[in-house]
Amino acid sequence: MEMMEDVVIVGAGIAGVATAVALKRVGVRALVLERSEGLRATGAALTLFPNAWLALDALGVSQAHPHLCSYNDTGFLHVGDGHGIRTIHRKALLEALAEELPVDSIQFSSKLAVIENEEQGGASIVVIHLEDGTTIKSKVLIGCDGGELGGGTLARTGRTSPFRAVCCARELYWFLTYNGDNMAGDPEQIQKQVLEKYAEKFPSSYLDVVRHADISTLTWAPLKFRQPWGIIFGKLSKGNVTVAGDAMHPMTPDLGQGGGSSLEDAVVLGRHIGNSVINNGGLIVPGDMAKAIDDYVKERRWRAAFLITGSYLAGWVQLGGGKWWMKFLRDGIFYKYLLGRISGLVHKDCGKLPAVSFGDMDHSSKKD
């Protein structure tokens, strides 16, 4: 079977689904390919900072799903004007984003086999071959799955984060980050190591949470990131192909910016593609689209590099130990001079999507 699409997005994570929503808002249909059988709910709590809420406002999601940004009694509050901090379930955000798309926008169980380019009428078309024999031709390809299209080798931090949830009257999430990148794979052993080795001096309330955790949900993962110079000097796009989210800028969780930066990517990419489509009367023109994608990369490159660097430094100094020189770096330099500047990164406004004056067009029927 052969299909023709204007835009194909690989990966139905936060970046992928949010980008599809952004493109829908500017009148462009996108097909999202997801290798899993359904929306992935890996991970538990997701903390959204002001920049994330501003991006959700731009996508129209926070207005359409007010339950995501209402007050609760957990201490994590979202102020109604978009400036606040709140922890929500990753799955709840994914479902809210997916509900903004037509039902056929996400194609599950779609595993990539080969991606190649083909010249068609003087324009470069991306040809995607799936393992089930399906061939999809697309004018634009956006990789939002680090496992499929993320470029470059990730660096190890030497730190690990085991985490998950306690299920009771409400869901309570906990996590722990420690130096070292090895831990037992058995959930009972993970729990035992946390209690007896890594958190033995923690407050009793924290230890009680760990003791009562549903051990079937306990996981761990070594923390990895993309080195910032790989973002600054690396190739993040090629013609009509680019990356977003974790495929572009995987980072440590120390600033809580993984999800927020992915939402920013969606808005910025949607804005540049939308402006190109509007300027061409509702058409996707491959030559102009390559420029739009290049402009998106230029806008996101340095911010992504700063977020990666800030996240890594925040985690490194907090787990640096008690030696005198590390205390000096942590208390005399980082907390005193750098933390405020790094924290300011979470107040970034990624902007709005362009208004579409030509209506909700289905560009799939249009020809270049």
Automatic annotation (TrEMBL):
InterPro entries: FAD-bd (IPR002938), FAD/NAD-bd_sf (IPR036188), MOase (IPR044560). PANTHER family: FAD/NAD(P)-BINDING OXIDOREDUCTASE FAMILY PROTEIN, OS04G0423100 PROTEIN. Keywords: Monooxygenase, Oxidoreductase. Belongs to the 3-hydroxybenzoate 6-hydroxylase family. Residues 6-147, 232-275 form the FAD-binding domain. It comes from Populus deltoides (Eastern poplar). This is FAD-binding domain-containing protein. One of its GO terms (molecular function) is monooxygenase activity. It comes from the Eukaryota.
